[in-house]
Write a structure and sequence with these properties.
Number of strands: 7
CATH topology: Beta Polymerase, domain 2
Strand order of the largest sheet: 1-2-3
Number of helices: 2
Distance between the termini: 13 Å
Radius of gyration: 15 Å
Largest sheet: 3 strands, antiparallel
Number of domains: 1
CATH class: Alpha Beta
Strand content: 25-35%
Structural class: alpha+beta
Order of helices and strands: HEEEEEHEE
Protein backbone atom coordinates (compact mmCIF):
# COMPACT_ATOMS: atom_id res chain seq x y z
CA UNK A 1 0.00 0.00 0.00
CA UNK A 2 1.07 3.58 -0.51
CA UNK A 3 2.10 5.01 2.85
CA UNK A 4 2.61 3.30 6.18
CA UNK A 5 1.11 -0.21 6.09
CA UNK A 6 1.89 -0.80 9.76
CA UNK A 7 0.09 2.36 10.92
CA UNK A 8 -2.88 1.45 8.69
CA UNK A 9 -3.00 -2.08 10.15
CA UNK A 10 -2.85 -0.84 13.74
CA UNK A 11 -5.70 1.61 13.13
CA UNK A 12 -7.73 -1.09 11.36
CA UNK A 13 -7.09 -3.45 14.28
CA UNK A 14 -8.41 -0.90 16.78
CA UNK A 15 -11.54 -0.30 14.70
CA UNK A 16 -12.28 -3.94 13.88
CA UNK A 17 -11.09 -5.73 17.02
CA UNK A 18 -8.48 -7.70 15.06
CA UNK A 19 -4.99 -8.53 16.36
CA UNK A 20 -1.95 -7.18 14.51
CA UNK A 21 1.47 -8.77 14.07
CA UNK A 22 4.04 -6.34 12.68
CA UNK A 23 7.38 -6.76 10.94
CA UNK A 24 8.85 -3.28 11.41
CA UNK A 25 12.08 -4.02 9.51
CA UNK A 26 10.13 -4.88 6.36
CA UNK A 27 7.23 -2.40 6.67
CA UNK A 28 4.66 -5.19 6.79
CA UNK A 29 1.90 -6.37 9.11
CA UNK A 30 -0.61 -9.19 9.40
CA UNK A 31 -4.19 -8.41 10.42
CA UNK A 32 -5.57 -11.44 12.31
CA UNK A 33 -9.34 -11.60 12.74
CA UNK A 34 -11.01 -13.44 15.65
CA UNK A 35 -12.08 -16.24 13.26
CA UNK A 36 -8.42 -16.80 12.27
CA UNK A 37 -8.65 -15.12 8.85
CA UNK A 38 -5.48 -13.17 8.03
CA UNK A 39 -4.68 -10.29 5.69
CA UNK A 40 -1.08 -9.36 4.91
CA UNK A 41 -0.44 -5.63 4.49
CA UNK A 42 2.78 -4.34 2.96
CA UNK A 43 3.98 -0.76 2.61
CA UNK A 44 5.16 0.04 -0.92
CA UNK A 45 8.89 -0.65 -0.87
CA UNK A 46 12.07 -1.46 -2.74
CA UNK A 47 14.41 -4.21 -1.63
CA UNK A 48 17.99 -5.04 -2.36
CA UNK A 49 20.32 -7.70 -1.04
CA UNK A 50 23.90 -7.14 0.12
CA UNK A 51 24.81 -10.75 -0.67
CA UNK A 52 23.06 -13.98 -1.72
CA UNK A 53 20.70 -15.43 0.93
CA UNK A 54 20.83 -12.21 3.00
CA UNK A 55 17.69 -10.61 4.36
CA UNK A 56 16.70 -7.67 2.19
CA UNK A 57 17.55 -4.06 2.91
CA UNK A 58 14.19 -2.29 2.63
CA UNK A 59 13.42 1.29 1.55
CA UNK A 60 9.98 2.84 1.13
CA UNK A 61 9.07 3.50 -2.51
CA UNK A 62 6.21 4.19 -4.88
CA UNK A 63 3.46 1.71 -5.70
CA UNK A 64 4.80 1.52 -9.26
CA UNK A 65 8.29 0.43 -8.13
CA UNK A 66 6.87 -1.98 -5.56
CA UNK A 67 4.56 -3.70 -8.05
CA UNK A 68 7.34 -3.86 -10.66
CA UNK A 69 9.50 -6.04 -8.40
CA UNK A 70 6.75 -8.55 -7.54
CA UNK A 71 5.84 -11.81 -9.23
CA UNK A 72 2.23 -11.15 -10.28
CA UNK A 73 1.53 -14.78 -11.18
CA UNK A 74 1.90 -15.91 -7.59
CA UNK A 75 1.76 -13.43 -4.74
CA UNK A 76 0.41 -10.01 -5.60
CA UNK A 77 -3.02 -8.44 -5.49
CA UNK A 78 -3.32 -4.71 -6.02
CA UNK A 79 -6.76 -3.22 -5.43
CA UNK A 80 -8.02 0.28 -4.76
CA UNK A 81 -9.84 -0.07 -1.44
CA UNK A 82 -12.21 2.82 -2.00
CA UNK A 83 -13.56 0.99 -5.06
CA UNK A 84 -13.53 -2.52 -3.60
CA UNK A 85 -15.50 -5.29 -5.25
CA UNK A 86 -17.02 -8.21 -3.38
CA UNK A 87 -15.33 -10.77 -5.57
CA UNK A 88 -12.07 -10.89 -7.42
CA UNK A 89 -10.34 -13.53 -9.48
CA UNK A 90 -6.67 -14.46 -9.40
CA UNK A 91 -4.41 -14.86 -12.38
CA UNK A 92 -2.24 -17.26 -10.44
CA UNK A 93 -0.36 -20.02 -12.15
CA UNK A 94 -2.32 -22.71 -10.30
CA UNK A 95 -4.04 -25.22 -12.60
CA UNK A 96 -7.48 -24.45 -11.18
CA UNK A 97 -7.06 -20.66 -11.57
CA UNK A 98 -7.92 -19.96 -7.91
CA UNK A 99 -10.88 -17.67 -7.34
CA UNK A 100 -11.84 -16.24 -3.98
CA UNK A 101 -13.84 -13.62 -2.12
CA UNK A 102 -12.43 -10.65 -0.30
CA UNK A 103 -13.05 -11.01 3.44
CA UNK A 104 -16.09 -8.87 4.39
CA UNK A 105 -14.17 -7.07 7.13
CA UNK A 106 -11.68 -5.80 4.53
CA UNK A 107 -14.41 -3.63 3.02
CA UNK A 108 -15.51 -1.79 6.16
CA UNK A 109 -16.45 1.78 5.22
CA UNK A 110 -14.56 3.35 8.17
CA UNK A 111 -11.26 2.85 6.34
CA UNK A 112 -12.26 3.91 2.82
Amino acid sequence: MRGDGIAFSKKYGRISGARIHTHEKFGTAVIIFPDGFKIDVASARMEYYKFPAALPVVEMSSIKLDLYRRDFTINTLAIQLNRIASECSSTSSTPEGHQGKIHPRAAQPELR
